[in-house]
Specification:
This protein has a single domain, classed as Multidrug-efflux Transporter Regulator, Chain: A, Domain 2. Helices cover about 65% and strands about 5% of the residues. It is built from five helices and two strands.
Length: about 120
């Protein structure tokens, strides 16, 4: 789920980029905006949403709690509200880093197998 390294320099991401990153629909992202006040992308002309890296981190947290851990929306809202120290968000970051490392190691393994 890591953003393309060249695109990491961007300040804003479109709703379609964010939806693709998390493999969800744009409609679901708009719904989560209504349900989770911590997701608040800026809106440019004609209501076009512009997600910052902070917005994406909030989407990542909600995605993890709802889609990966199977929590209800209310349960996820309650956990985010109780988590003032950011512990859950840090856990999600660690999980993402570990997944990225696993993918990198799998790529290296495939490349090594191709050399043998």
């Amino acid at each position: 789920m890591a953003l393309n390294k060249n695109k990491d320099l961007k300040m804003f991401y479109s709703i379609s980029e964010v939806a693709q990153k998390f493999n969800v629909t744009e409609t679901l992202l708009r719904y989560w905006e209504k349900e989770f006040p911590n997701i608040k992308p800026q809106k440019a002309g004609r209501g076009i949403r512009q997600y910052t890296k902070d917005d994406i981190e909030q989407v990542r947290l909600v995605h993890h709690l709802v889609k990966e851990r199977g929590m209800t929306l209310q349960g996820a809202r309650d956990m985010i509200k109780r988590d003032k120290g950011g512990g859950v968000n840090k856990q999600v970051e660690v999980i993402e880093r570990l997944r990225s490392l696993r993918n990198d190691l799998q790529d290296i393994g495939r490349n090594l197998n191709g050399l043998v």
